[in-house]
Amino acid sequence: MTALTLSTAAAPGLRTDAIVVGVAKVTGSKSGDLVVAPGAEAVDKAYDGRLAGVLETLGASGGEGEVTKLPAPSGFKAPLVVAVGLGALPEKDGSFSAETLRRAAGVAARALAGTKKAAFALPVSDAADAGAIGEGVLLGSYSFDAYKAAAKDGNGSKNGKGPLGEATLLGGKARDKAFKAAIERATAVSEELNRARDLINTPPNDLNPEAFAAVAQAAAKEHGIKVQVLDEKALAKGGYGGILGVGAGSASAPRLVKLSYTSSKAKKHLAFIGKGITYDSGGISLKPAGHNETMKCDMSGAAAVFAAVVAAARLGLEVNVTGWLALAENMPSGSATRPGDVLRMYSGKTVEVLNTDAEGRLVLADALAKASEEKPDAIVDVATLTGAMMLALGNRTFGIMANDDAFRSAVHEAAEEVGEAAWPMPLPDHLKKGMDSPTADIANMGERYGGGLVAGLFLKEFVGEGITWAHLDIAGPAFNEQGPFGYTPKGGTGSAVRTLVRLAELTAVGDLG
After folding, report:
1. Which residues are catalytic, by number?
2. Backbone region of residue 504 per phi and psi (left: phi > 0; alpha: psi in -120 to 50; beta: other values)
3. What pTM was computed for the model?
4. Half-sphere exposure of residue 406, counting CA atoms within 13 Å on the CB side?
5. Is 66:4 a contact under the CB 8 Å cutoff?
6. Which one-letter DSSP state was computed for residue 488?
């Protein structure tokens, strides 16, 4: 993974392979007007103050995500300058948002794949800016090449282009406590988010429930997290009918993994629950052709929860965080759950299964009921749950539902703060009637329209009384099938990891309700 360092050195004297600078559009000016962003003054001076003009000549517009490369000026020890667009210059105080800096750094880091070292001379007004740039670099330089041919180039990287080796962030003092803490946080969160991406991208023939549980056990041991794994025998003994029912058709048995990070100074307890369907064929209600190819990503919720708990441990947050990974593989076979079957859930409620492709809510229901027994201060579940949420919010925004409006707003604010697109969604009571079953307490399907909300209402039925709860449906942003953008790669994205970590941080300092 890319190494991060801080430096107050001047860009011209740095021995590096590239200098990254920011450029922006001047709002209200004629098309094409550019301005060099703060942080790159020394670079602009070396071009006699004409860097913006040179870039315009090369076709640069300053738009977000735009990258323009040009030779470094005479006297620089770096041979290359990389200008990355920041979008419109802010009209108020000229300060760019953390997300703008994060995205720009990610774009530049990806453009510098195969480079040993680069210096980032982007706008840094405080430690938070440095942290955002650091996150952008680490997330943007991500690549998943574990299954590609191991042809090595002279630098030892696969296929000739490994990630950027080292990034020096200019404008931050290495010994300043705030800057140091920001970089340490960016490193911990980004490394765990990238580990979640690795899990999401791993083919399902190598990542079944047992293998996922083993990864969690190894990480827990490394970071002092208590772990408990319930195998199929323990699940049967405990009455986890939802998890067992979903996994019944697979040769790979299901698992329920509990990860417990505790702090001696904690005053609050959060429970995070992740849907971990390591492959979703739809079961007997088989998915149509064209909908199976990316279903290795159906464990993205569990990957996010796993990453968030480990990040909380690495950051030493003063809050207790319990992660529940509900792991199963949903396959069709002679032993698979059938439409019309009734499952007795861990809570004791019975569920008529009308569609075996509505399986995520079944494994989550068991985990929600179990997590509720510990009476946490709040529960947040994360799942690639419904295609309906993608129809409602698109591919880059996740939906937030909750049994408490204030908590839903707090989760939304946390997501916005860390740069994750999210939107609050309702849980209309009238949709519950569609899940009435003549045979069982509830059916796992309801009305077609508003299907994402129906799924949220189903989950709500399994949350313990009096417990604050939120549900994040990350079906859209969990897996990017298009080209990379900002710091987001193609494939697994690690959606919701940063939101969960931020919720834990806010809870630790008493700022979350």
Report:
1. 287, 361
2. alpha
3. 0.96
4. 5
5. no
6. B
